[in-house]
Amino acid sequence: MKITIDEELCCASGLCTVKAGEVFDQRDEDGIAVLLAEAPAAEHHDAVREAAAVCPAAAIHIME
Amino acid sequence: MTGENVLDYPFDQPKALEAPREWAEARATCPVTHVRMPSGDVAGLVTGYDEARALLSDPRFNRRLDHEGAARTSTTEDGGMFNRENKALSQMMSEGHRRYRRLISPAFTVKKMEAWRPRIQQMTDELLDAMLAKGAPAELRAEFALPLPVRVICALLGASAEDQGRFAHWSDVLMTTTKYTQAEVDEARREFEAYASDLVEEKRANPREDLLSELTQISDSEDGRLSHAELISTVVGILVAGHETTSNQIVKMTALLLEDRQLYEAVIADPSLVPGAVEEALRLDPVGGLGIPRFISEDIEVGGEPVPAGTTLFVNLSAADRDERKFPDADRFDPCRPNAQQHLAFSAGPRFCIGQTLARVELQVVLDTFVRRLPELRLRDDPDALRIRTGVVATGLEELWVTW
């Protein structure tokens, strides 16, 4: 699995950090989501998929 | 749009906790339904999940209706809260929106909002102590659901708790659709903006550890990136949005869970259901009100149907959140529903509710505290007797009497 975040779309909801805190964080300066791991370990895959599904801006793209 | 039958909007709701039947009918008929606003103007109504989400995510359109030809919502001469001219707000909502959001988002990150959880727990317990001391029955809206979010938002902004009554009144007036006159609206707006301006000046002079001090510093750094007018609109927006909506939702969530008391008992038995129950109560908000307006400034298609430039659309979030195509058995309250959190109660896209983390923390703390401390909580009245507050944009129940 490889993840990208579309920063143009990201609306800084932070929901991804709630769903998968090991993989996503929010930048202090603008609240935009950042990746802690571009290719997360298998045990985080379900959480990452959920983060992408609840992202209100549909800004998380997953390549499996 | 189907032109032959224009429905009066918002729809009548004989039972406060049941969605108006027109939502499902509109969804089954066509993507955009003609409705008549309280002002008499006609707008289009969007009730399907996919169409709603696509529109809300479209950065070209926003909720400002201060354009020539936009539908007026309210019976006041200025057309209502979405139609009022406000240069700073228009700028914030349109081309400057992205810049504006990036300036204020850091103050609302999940980490910062979660840090408030212990304080919110403390305020919740204090209000509940007072309610229990007075004894049952209690009117939950007045005793608990209104004061809690107001206290939270005051603490967050660093406003004095003594001012609560004043801005609660101003918000009520500003959000009118039929309740107040133009003169009353103008007066409330003047007073509210003067109050916000004073608060901003005070934070500028004596910055503290609060969100408004933080925003004031943003506005002062790097050649005034957030103008004074924007700051005032932001303060008014946070005070209005931050208390009314959450208050209403506390009442509606409690009513939904107690109406079918097995739901409440399930959460008592398994408090890990609290977050899921909170999401499901947001999804199943039975009082959709007007929804979120979108002024359509260029020709588009909604669900394959052409919508010409100059149309005003209302996206009814609650109606979209009961779309069977997205949420199977949509009218059923299921705290374990796997995709419940994809609801649109906080909108979607670039204008997604900036206060949603705070609202979720408040709702989770409230429900968790109720099931721990009030296992005997019950509705005093028959759910069919519950009444919806009418004449304002943000809709909730008039009152909710509970016993324990």
UniProtKB/TrEMBL annotation, chain A:
The keyword Phosphoprotein does not apply. It comes from the Bacteria. Gene3D superfamilies: 3.30.70.20. It comes from Streptomyces graminofaciens. Its cofactor is [3Fe-4S] cluster. This is Ferredoxin. Keywords: 3Fe-4S, Electron transport, Iron, Iron-sulfur, Metal-binding, Transport.
UniProtKB/TrEMBL annotation, chain B:
CDD domains: Cyp158A-like. InterPro entries: Cyt_P450, Cyt_P450_B, Cyt_P450_CS, Cyt_P450_sf. It comes from the Bacteria. Keywords: Heme, Iron, Metal-binding, Monooxygenase, Oxidoreductase. Its cofactor is heme. Gene3D superfamilies: Cytochrome P450. PANTHER family: CYTOCHROME P450 BJ-1, P450, PUTATIVE (EUROFUNG)-RELATED. Belongs to the cytochrome P450 family. This is Cytochrome P450.
